[in-house]
Design brief:
Oligomer: single chain
Strand order of the largest sheet: 8-7-6-17-10-13-14-16
Strand content: 25-35%
Distance between the termini: 36 Å
Largest sheet: 8 strands, mixed
Low-confidence stretches: 10-35
Length: 289
Amino acid sequence: MRTLAVLFIVGGAGHGQTHASGAEVVFSQGAGGAVAVHTVAPGESLVELARRYDVGFNEITAANPRIDPFIPAVGTPVTIPGSALLPDVPVHSGIVVNLAEMRLYSFPPRAGDAVDTFPVGIGDEGWDTPTGTYTIIQKIADPAWHVPPSIRRQRPELPPVVPPGPDNPLGARALRLSLGTVLIHGTNHPYGIGRKVSHGCIHLYPEDIDRLFRKVSVGTRVTIVRQPVKAAVVNGRLLVEVHDEAGCDLEQEVIDLLAEKALLARADLAKLAAAAKARSGMPTDITRT
């Protein structure tokens, strides 16, 4: 089982606190062992490795920007992202989805228990997944897909209803949100995880939606945010996590967040600029020495 270390975000939304738990929340997920680097074997691509290690396509390509994601050279070392900072929300409970990093966090009912996290696919341009706070109103096993009229206009060859089965884009499990038209569900195209591929729904790998489906219940809170920049102080070190986001001045986003948290004086501005430029999606130490 691979472990992903998730570090606590500094303070909470609207707080200027500079404390954070120095402990790591470690969760078991995926397969292949606690791997930080994978050496490419013949026939492998980053698409396949992303699923093997339970990360999204966006995460593995951001961590390896100089590697061809589809035809990487045999023997190339590939970094497997292994840690993340929690999204900055008022309450860490239920499900939190950060669209900017394309990752879902499922919090336990009891503090101190393991947090589950999964990569997701989200809404494509023009079909953006909405932000906001909702609840799960229905759990559906083996869902049928009632094709929306808007999609049938794009693809008239589709039937009004796609029955459960391997050709159903909802996969084997679905969670309907109080928003109504948006679901968290599986997929029959797992290569879309970590990409903008949906008409607004949130997609998970088949093995991940099965785990999440068994864990959550009707009434669970679902908070959807868009946070391209996160920050935390862990064991006395200032970490930032920067995700690519079109239309954002990411360096300024980092500066503004650290200023809001009263942490800017602890940052090395050269390291901050480098982290914003790299957009690696991984926690990066920018502590001033």
